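User: Hey, my collaborator sent me this sequence without any context and asked if I could get a structure. I don't really work with proteins. Can you help?
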Amino acid sequence: MLITQKKQYALRAIYELAKHQRKGPIKTAQIAEAQAIPQRFLEIILNRLKHAGLVVAKRGYCGGFQLKRPPREITVEDIFKSMEDIDEATVCVSCISKSDCPFYGACAFLPVWREMQKAIDQICTGTTVQSLLENKSVQPLGE
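Assistant: No problem. I've predicted the 3D structure and written it out in structure-token form, which is a compact way to encode the shape of the chain:
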């Protein structure tokens, strides 16, 4: 899983919405300012989050965005997957694309990259937005 700037912004946007979950919709400008996300880029991200079923949009003067599900039901993995631009099957853990890797099929480091990827995946699937709100960290592997 590549952790792009877009995925980081999406996580921060969802986090900001979760902080205000019972206060009604939040305007894009408020999210952008609170989380230091370029507003134009945030609009694109929020649209993708909406299509992924993570947020809902309300139009009008009192409109904005809010979470569609409770923070305890949204994982970091849910957010990151909604932002993926490429087919993960075509990505090597350490390279942008398997087809661009001169060592594909004979990479001495692949076992290490796969273990690292498993750890990242476990953290992403085990971390909910609620746990971020409560400032709880994920337990390290093996504990």
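In plain terms: The beta strands are 55-58, 64-67. You can pass these tokens on to your collaborator as they are.
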